[in-house]
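Please check this chain.
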Amino acid sequence: MTRILQRDIDIGLLRAFIAVAETGSMTTAANIVSLTQSAVSQRIKRLEGVLNLKLFERTVEAMGLTSDGERLLSRAYKLVANNDQLVTDMWGADFNGEVKLGVPHDVVASMMPPTLRLFKRAYPHVLVTLVSDTSQVLHEKMCDKKIDLVLMTETVRGNQEQFLLTDRLVWVGAKGGEAYIERPLSVALGAENCAFRSSAVDALNKAEIHWRSICQEGSLEPVFATLKADLAVAPFLSRTVPADLDIHKNTELPALPEFHINLRTQPDNPSPIALELAKLIQDDFAKRYRGT
């Protein structure tokens, strides 16, 4: 009888494998698991080495599963789920209920999924309801006690308990686009109460650039469509720029200021579960963004 060598599989390798299998892209998978593309590639190679199997067919367009990769996928889901359930069961209090979290439009999709995934694993019985709007509107909702805590993009850095990260505004447009060259410059400034609007307007006026505002929408979908069509440029935090758009560097467009993302909670008796979510957000953002 042949004896099979027992090998332990790192759950982190399986998480990277699942992310690549689901997205077909090393780059997109890297964003999901909060690693570099190189680190994800190394994890896939390590997993293939442990199993002595080829798991992906690599093409220019995408990463496709081999038959062995397809066979592993369902087992990988089960192993990761069992791992997460074990961690959840061993963590402290098992909270129940709902917490409402406000996040600006540009931050919610680009930064929050890894944090929310961690929270779900830790507190599977808590419902997190996301409310997305401008920072000003979200702050008003929190003051009215309609939401429990809110991430805000602000010009002033919050205190130690509030501050999450600092990022610079940049000009963004279509890949290979020429909208940034045209005059008057078409600018998608978003809603009237957008936190970045006044900074962009002040910078353009000081640079004496002839400009006009288009696509004044609160939602980001029309703004993205306008940018991809090369109809305008727009100010975004550098960390929130989608992969299918370009940052316009070394152009005649004026430099834009830094903004801070701060976390604010209800000042009067925030719920215990809201405080737990706030702590997890602080810890996760510090791990992913501080010093980078």
Summary: Residues 120 and 126 are 7 Å apart (CA to CA).
